[in-house]
Amino acid sequence: MNNRSWVGFRVLAVASCVAMAGCAGLQTSGHKYSDSYKLNQPVKGEGCYDASVLLGKNVGASMEIATKVLAAIDSTVSEKTANQVKAQRNRHIGLLVGSGGEELSISLSPVQGNRTFVTVATKTGFVGGAGQKAWSCQIVDQMVAMSAR
After folding, report:
1. CATH class given for the domain over 22-147
2. 20 to 30 A from 120, CA-CA: which of 21, 65, 105, 145?
3. Residues 95 and 78: beta-carbon distance below 8 Å
4. What is the mean pLDDT of each run of 10 residues along the chain (149 residues)?
């Protein structure tokens, strides 16, 4: 192989890897509130990139719980409003690949009777999975456990 075709081969190989790796997860949740939700029973999407739950707490208390859960899974809050918190998991160096860096989005919607509908979305990075994982299911499970206290 001459130099020119070797460079072309490398470019093609890198482009193929990038196309196959892609990003995984969701920027925002696709779950919508309906009357079929049962109190403190999480609904989990495929792969746990998307999850939701109806909590028996008001939005303020639910936001406090969400912030505590994010801290417990080693995340740094990047944006916080009255009804949404966005965070990124802190990065860690592993033996072969690093972990962390997932983007997490928690949205809170008030529902009648002092309840809050919570949606959680996880978006993994460029390599989509190498050392990263979906956290949405674990977050809603921890929020349910903390709301029961």
Report:
1. alpha beta
2. 21
3. no
4. 52 40 60 94 94 97 97 94 94 61 93 94 70 88 95
